[in-house]
Design a protein that fits this description.
The protein is 32% helix and 42% strand. It contains four helices and 16 strands.
């Protein structure tokens, strides 16, 4: 082989290597950029749809599956949802950590399905006090007795209640009510108990209560759900495309 041919071959090889490096860099840039864009789009789509039903701002996390694939097939193995503001439905200070499995979302914002779900809910005593507001000036709880004590009218009256799970919902039962140490009819405090009960029944996306515990800091609830429909994403009454 002549010196000229050898030199030409080396130049061609060098050019090929450079071209392959450039193509690889461009491809990696496109994939990374595409993944970031897809993650943003899917996160926005799912956040909007979940917030619609959960009634609270949320943070969304995903499993290991690349979002580029999710953007194409509309399948998400796992979605982790954390309440991101100080209010969940009517409850002030309620914190929700939920996990949704086998989520399928449409590519036109028309909804989807959830295979199964679970959630841990915690609600501190001060948040309970703020939610009940008005007549309730203080809330304490005892894990040993399973009771919450509500101070009413600046402590002149006390109400002891016990949360229980019945038919998939948390119900609040009044155990005792007293004014200046003297028992009073439970009906007189039914309004407070009703607000307490309603605040513990904002279950997102087909979930049901499976367990409730009174802790020394408040109330802890476990939720679980099976297959359910994911509502359509909407913004100003217009569907948002995923």
């Amino acid at each position: 082989m002549s010196t000229r041919s050898s030199s030409t071959l080396k130049v061609n090889r060098r050019a090929l290597v450079i071209a392959l490096v450039v193509v690889t860099i461009l491809l990696a840039t496109v994939l990374v950029g595409g993944e970031l864009y897809a993650r943003h789009q899917v996160s926005r789509c799912i956040s909007t749809q979940f917030e619609k039903d959960m009634g609270s701002k949320i943070d969304v996390g995903f499993g290991a599956k690349p979002m580029l694939i999710t953007w194409i097939d509309g399948k998400v193995d796992q979605v982790k949802v954390d309440s991101a503001d100080s209010k969940f439905g009517p409850a002030v200070g309620m914190v929700v950590h939920a996990r949704f499995n086998d989520v399928s979302v449409s590519n036109n914002g028309s909804g989807g399905t959830i295979g199964s779900s679970s959630a841990d809910v915690t609600w501190g005593n001060d948040g309970i006090r703020q939610t009940l507001g008005g007549l309730v000036s203080g809330v304490t709880s005892s894990s040993s007795s399973g009771l919450l004590t509500l101070d009413v009218l600046g402590g002149l009256a006390q109400l002891q209640v016990k949360p229980e799970v019945k038919d998939g919902t948390v119900q609040i039962e009044t155990m005792s009510a007293a004014l200046l140490g003297i028992g009073i009819p439970k009906d007189l405090v039914s309004g407070i108990v009703d607000v307490f009960t309603q605040s513990l029944q904002s279950y997102p996306l087909g979930m049901k209560a499976t367990e409730v515990k009174v802790t020394d800091n408040g109330v802890a609830v476990k939720l679980a759900g099976g297959r359910t429909e994911l509502p359509a994403a909407q913004n100003n009454n217009n569907n948002i495309s995923c």
